[in-house]
Amino acid sequence: MLKVEHVSIQYHERKVVNDISFEVPKGEFFGIVGPNGSGKSTLMNAINGSLKLAQGSITLHGKNISSYPSKELAKRMAVLPQMSELSFHYDVREIVSLGRYPYQKGWLQQLTKKDEEVIEQALIDTNIQSFQHKLLHTLSGGERQRVLLARALAQQPEVLLLDEPTNHLDLSHQMSLLNALKNLTEETGLTVIAVLHDLNLASLYCDRLLLMDDGREVDLADTNLVMNEVQLKKVYNASIQRYEHPSIAKPLITLEPFEKEGGNKLINSLYISEKEGYFEIESEHMWKFYSNFSNSGWSQSFGLNEANAKGEQLGVFSIEGTIVKSIQLKASIGTTEILVVGSLEQSKQQNSKLHLFVFIEGVLSERAFSQALILVTEAKTSAFLSVGNQKSLVQGNPESLVIAASQTGETMNDFYQKKMVHLELAEAITQTMNSLFAKEEFLEC
């Protein structure tokens, strides 16, 4: 449908867009991403016909866009402007009706029945019928952007161009706008070409992406392929990590904060206390954790303590019961710190319950969390077998397990590839369990 061939754009002696080519078929949501100054918006202005090309061509249905009369091009292509371009003092329906201008003829330009039907459908598609008689300046940012989208849809375009349409919108309004656009591409065959600043929004909504840097194409492919961690780090000159969305097959991009080398280890800041019938681990840092504790008397507030808003300590693990014995074992592998804390609780029924806490100072992906869970379970089973008589330990009482990661320091996307960390953690768990089960009088309880 729309074809860009070897397009270059020049300001004075400098090429700001250099030899860009791509083709967008009907019904595709096509995204253009890249750092500031990469030429994204300049390319978009060339596509809508407002900039002269230094070389190359842009065609719509095989016809150069520069050869279309302005009204004819407006019937085929619409532009959704950024919020900063708003200067209307009309009500919502009047603004949407401006989208019918390309279809009006003669001196006395009146809206026809067909125009009214199209305007009504645009109001419905963008869910703004309820405030169609309100003045634009009285609306929120998200509502105003939906009004401009309705005006663009009233043009009945084949191609809709968007230059950072989610600027100045909060999260819910960003999602609402892009959901509406995605539905239109699927239901009506509308073609959307969007310059997007947010890589995660681009990942969620775009079918394909053009990644630009310094006016040139870096990559042009399906979204999953363009969102390459190594490639994005180079283009954006930032510490970027790629993860997978937990519910759909889309990548998620996160930024890693600057960390001062040689800073205090977070594991060293954990405070562990044991009193009669009470065991507690406290931290001022938010830890990401997995827990299978259920109906165990454990206070599940670690990393979620509301007291943090008042400047108090952030998280607490606490277990109520008769703590028979507890032990701590710490290991260091390079920049990775590991702390294993084990405790044995004597219940009222005289059956013993094992509580095992594993703290890892590092960044664990969802995959690494799952692998760590498997590793800890295997190490725990091995330790049980080595001391024997484990049946009397947990009969009627399942073991409880917490795996917590600081999400700072070294990244571990694949736990098994970190062989030394893998081995050291297994050894630390085994030693902890062996020490806990060392007393024969306890094993016989």
UniProtKB/TrEMBL annotation:
GO terms for molecular function: ATP binding; ATP hydrolysis activity. SMART domains: AAA. InterPro entries: AAA+_ATPase, ABC_transporter-like_ATP-bd, ABC_transporter-like_CS, P-loop_NTPase. Keywords: ATP-binding, Nucleotide-binding, Translocase, Transport. It comes from the Bacteria. CDD domains: ABC_Iron-Siderophores_B12_Hemin. The keyword Translocase applies. PROSITE patterns: ABC_TRANSPORTER_1, ABC_TRANSPORTER_2. Residues 2-239 form the ABC transporter domain. This is Cobalamin/Fe3+-siderophores transporter.
